[in-house]
Amino acid sequence: MSSNALYTDLSGYYDLMCSDINYQQQSASIHRLHQFLGNNGKQHLDLACGTGPHVRHFIDLGYQCSGLDINQPMLDMAMRRCPEAQFNLQDMTAFYLEQPVDLITCFLYSIHYSAGIERLKSCIASVHRALNDGGIFCFNSVDKHRIDNRLSIKHFAEFEGHHFAFESGWHYSGHGENQSLNLSIAKSLQPFTQQADVDDDADTSAHQTELWQDQHTMVATSFAELQALLAPYFEVHIFEHDYEKIVPWDLSSGNALFVCVKI
């Protein structure tokens, strides 16, 4: 098995790495929340939009969409997926829009890429400036005090004759304003469930596994701290991290969906 640092540019693996995500369900859920709590406007911006899968579904829901990311290769893929949308290469912690929007989303815990409290504050202020009156900001977050460093999420995919195993997990040291998101990608010609059954006499070169690993520094907050940062700008609603139904946060789970109405 060979091991390397994970590519800084994940654009080639991004869609495969997220193949288990129900983008349509997530987008439809936020659309419903916008109908209930927002101004029902149709101008939408997706922060950290990646290759644009959420943008695609919001377009199909009737929104005029734009996306923002710091990775140009991902934006190139997003433009091919969503030619109707506008995409911008900007940092979400300090972005500017010429025209305000009604709905800003930030999926897949990407709000935590604001690595540090000051940058998170700047992101929140940028979002507030970019919203029309009554507009909403929706994102999901993890509470630093409820992270289990032993847990990780793993799924498998196949692409171009190769088998991939993707794994990710949060880690928080217990103090400070940073946590890490640990990522790994394993690529093999053999299904990973069958690796142990490989014949010792077989051509080992055909069964070699490549492994990429990386660690991303993310901002760490509790939900109480996050509420305090949002309160000067928004009326904050916190829901369970459940895109099938709208349920208030139970005050104990470590994942939640924040819906913030501009005040």
Strand segment tally? 12
Overall geometry: globular
Please state how the strands of the largest beta sheet are arranged side by side.
4-3-2-5-6-12-11
SS summary, helix count = 6
Order of helices and strands: EHHEHEHEEHEEEEEHEE
Strand content: 25-35%
Distance between the amino and carboxyl termini = 54 Å
Stretches where pLDDT is under 50 for at least 5 consecutive residues are: 1-8, 194-206
Quick check: average pLDDT? 90
Indicate the structural class.
Answer: alpha/beta
Give the radius of gyration.
20 Å
Range of helix content:
10-25%
Q: What would your notes on this structure say?
A:
Helix content is 24%, strand content 34%. The chain is an alpha/beta fold. The strands form 2 sheets. It has a 7-stranded mixed sheet, with helices on both faces. A 5-stranded mixed sheet has the order 1-10-9-8-7, with no helix packed on it.
